[in-house]
Write a structure and sequence with these properties.
Length: 252
């Protein structure tokens, strides 16, 4: 875990990490109590959002060039990491990860995603086929997650229920955030959708939320690769002018 501190912290993160030998048992007890009760402490659900440029060199006067990153309590990030480790073990044990999702998984990266897509396209070219690649990117992807739909995904698609599902419900609900620009803070505002960008669980929850997308693509017999909210669709045939796309019927 990095040493970045939040303005909400009672003490700097670097100091907490130096004192971990004395604090780790208490932190673990807080996390285990949270899991056993199915409740996330209310103070953990506050965040300070700092807008950061998506890439160096972008025009700072264009608001769309910024990414809203949530600055969370160290204690909360510790709790998220413990939860992530359990989810990751559960998903790997029962092969619940999407086969073609290359984000936020061990031994997967942007490199593995690009290697597969590039290799498939080159194989098509070697077989004298034409290939079309379509790149999809969602805008404000993490901010648009519907909490009710996500909880349904966790329960019915991934088999998470009981106290564990109650914990995720508590994790998602009742969050607030305030924006900080040049050390000026806005008022706290409630969040009714989305997951914190910059959190430990946000990315994996997003991939679970969008997992049915894989079913739709497979039903239409299209090759694809996913990396978080970036989707690569590609298909090949002998002559693209003869190719016809007939959408498969999907059932909810």
């Amino acid at each position: 875990m990095n040493s970045k501190s939040s303005a909400l912290e009672p003490m700097p993160t670097q100091l907490v990490k130096l004192c971990l030998p004395e604090l780790v048992d208490d932190l673990v007890n807080i996390a285990n109590t949270s899991f056993e009760a199915g409740t996330v402490p209310r103070r953990h659900k506050r965040a300070i959002v700092r807008p950061l440029l998506k890439k160096p060199g972008l025009d700072p006067d264009v608001l769309s060039n910024y990414r809203p990153v949530s600055n969370l309590l160290f204690e909360h990030k510790f709790l998220e990491n413990m939860c992530f480790n359990q989810i990751d073990e559960y998903f790997n044990q029962f092969s619940l990860y999407s086969k073609f999702q290359s984000a936020y998984r061990r031994n997967h990266s942007t490199e593995t995603a690009l290697l597969r897509v590039r290799n498939d396209i080159l194989v098509s070219m070697d077989n004298h086929k034409e290939c079309i690649l379509v790149l999809l990117d969602l805008t404000a992807a993490f901010d648009t997650i519907d909490h009710d739909i996500l909880l349904q995904r966790l329960e019915h698609r991934l088999g998470i229920n009981g106290i564990a599902l109650k914990w995720f419900d508590s994790y998602l609900r009742g969050r607030t955030q305030r924006v900080c620009i040049d050390n000026c803070y806005s008022d706290d505002e409630p969040l009714f959708c989305g997951v914190p960008q910059g959190s430990g669980l946000g990315p994996i929850l997003f991939t679970l939320y969008t997992s049915p997308l894989e079913d739709i693509i497979l039903a239409n017999d299209i090759d694809f690769m996913l990396f978080a909210d970036d989707t690569q669709l590609y298909f090949s045939c002998k002559n693209l002018s003869d190719w016809k796309f007939i959408p498969a019927k999907m059932h909810r």
